[in-house]
Design brief:
Keywords: Transferase. The protein is of the alpha+beta class. It has 13 helices and 10 strands. The protein folds into 3 domains: about 140 residues, Aminopeptidase (3-Layer(aba) Sandwich), CATH 3.40.630; about 40 residues, no CATH class; about 70 residues, no CATH class. The radius of gyration is 31 Å and the shape is globular.
Amino acid sequence: MPGFTAIPSTDYGTFDAAGEAKDVADSRSEYEERRRLRLAENAPKELEYFLAQEPTKGQGKHYIEMRLVRSSPSSDEFNSTLDTSYQLYKKYQMTVHGDEPNECTMECFTRFLVKSPLVSDNGADSPNTSNVPSLGSYHQQYWLDGVKLIAVGVIDILPRCLSSVYLYYDPDYSFLHLGTYSALRELGFVRDLIRTHGPTSVTPHPLYVHFDSYYMGYYIRSCPKMSYKAQFHPSYLACPETYIWVPVKSCLQRLDSAPGGKYARFSDESATDVHAISESLDPVDLDRKIVCRISSDGRRRQRERLALEPEDDKRFGVPVTLDFLRRYITPEGFQILREWAKLLGRRVLDGNFQIVFG
């Protein structure tokens, strides 16, 4: 019977422990680098990162160009695009809100979104020649490929915030969610103003020493066109009783537990409106305590209409009391000014209450 003999081999090769360890170390290093890059890619990012990803002219098939134009007093660029902007507004109002043509005339548009009670910090006849946006009213125009106006955001730049007033857009481009997009662009604009001109910037500007917020206007929970604002964080709602800003999450919880879910006090019960004028103050005494300023432009325009006496005309150049203005304002107008002053609170007692006659 054939036999089978196993011949032991002595050629086992060599084991390079150092080389094996090096391969493991290299593999681990590569894995950790890939993991680091993956985590960096998936980490939360600043808004500016995403805005920077937007294609600009020549970078993609389409791009959106945003132009900031002064609406009041109107700039040349605003005037040259006024009819285009109005036609877009009319199309939006009739399509989205169901307005009739007589409800969205040029006069309605101008009164609603062009005329502004805000006074230019440069004066009505002094155009801004610096790179720092003046305080006041603007339209942010969104141009598709630089040639087609598809949306306009109406904003006010105020001493403490940018106020988002209104947005109208081409309904044909509603799939772009231009309401959310414009809010993100406005947020980016606010952050850029703070970073470039705010108190902590390299070159702070006096106009922006208190500028730190983005105001989105009214919040109506039952209206989808308004309730989307709660999706932005961190965000706050003003308590309707104390005017204190409260985190929106807490406000929604209080609304959920309120009868009918329509009204709730957002502040703690112990909180008070620190700027409120005491209810015990007699209205006549209040009128004598409220200090007003009449702008120089207002004095010039109103000199003949008010038929000011020479001595009174001089007094209009310095702070005057609300009581002093009683003789020049209708009773209805005077009552409106008084109520407005009471809403502003104790701030009006320090001489910063400026009235501009149109």
